[in-house]
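User: Predict structure, ligand 2'-monophosphoadenosine-5'-diphosphate.
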Amino acid sequence: MSECYAVFGQPIQHSKSPRIHTFFAAQTGQNMSYTAQEVAPEHFSDNVQAFFVYGGLGLNCTVPLKELAFAYADSKTPRALRAKAVNTLKYQPDGSILGDNTDGCGLVTDLLDNHKLTLAGRRILLLGAGGASRGIIAPLLEQAPATIVIANRTPDKATQLAAEFQDLGGVSGGGFAELNGQQFDLILNATSASLSGQLPPLPDGVLVAGGVCYDLAYGNQPTAFVHWGLAHGAAHSVDGLGMLIEQAAEAFYLWRGVRPDTAELISVFDSERGRL
Ligand code: ATR
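Assistant: Predicted complex:
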């Protein structure tokens, strides 16, 4: 019998995770199944408990369940503790549940390995101060950028978020207005604005000529922020599909101890989106 894995979220019907993990399982010869289940926050604990009681070995948790998964896990990896959110749960041999967060690692792997970017010494602008931003700051700081500036519609949230990570490197926070006159090599969009086609108010000249724009969101069409990057002189302006695949690969590795080859799957998705 195959071993069971799943993703919980709400909404979940458009999730690409079942396809990604099924691809990885076939590629690495792992006997496992991976399904998607719509789970409302109020039913989260019951559903997770039932999943593991009936023999499930690992879960991904996505929006809006990552903080609940953090609270549910019996133990957490250091990177999950920093993110205060969990996207991966793993059944341990002693029956306890381990919580991990593979989002930040997925982003950094996509930036470095797939897009061949250097983060060391770069000036990074991070848009948004919600859960998506929180999960990626520590892994980005590990790459020793010159600075990370967090800009948010509600400036206080950015200031507070920056303060939480100051022990790890140069990071500051504020509002969009404070970006006037500043320039960045890489702009990461971690606001939820892009999903509804909206953009944060960014001053002209905030992206250095030939810089990079990266939207953590993704879709079958380029997002509003990817379009913004292309219109403002970016050498690369890409969405977060690579991050999704890389965070999945890291979860797969945690569960199965085998690292899938992501390049093959990325090229499948890219050709489907007409980018080859
Ligand atoms: P997530 O977990 O996806 O980060 P979140 O915690 O709700 O979701 O955070 C959403 C982020 O997108 C916040 O930084 C939010 O700004 P506020 O803190 O001011 O609410 C940002 N955001 C959402 N809609 C936005 C918009 N139209 N323009 C700019 N920022 C927006």
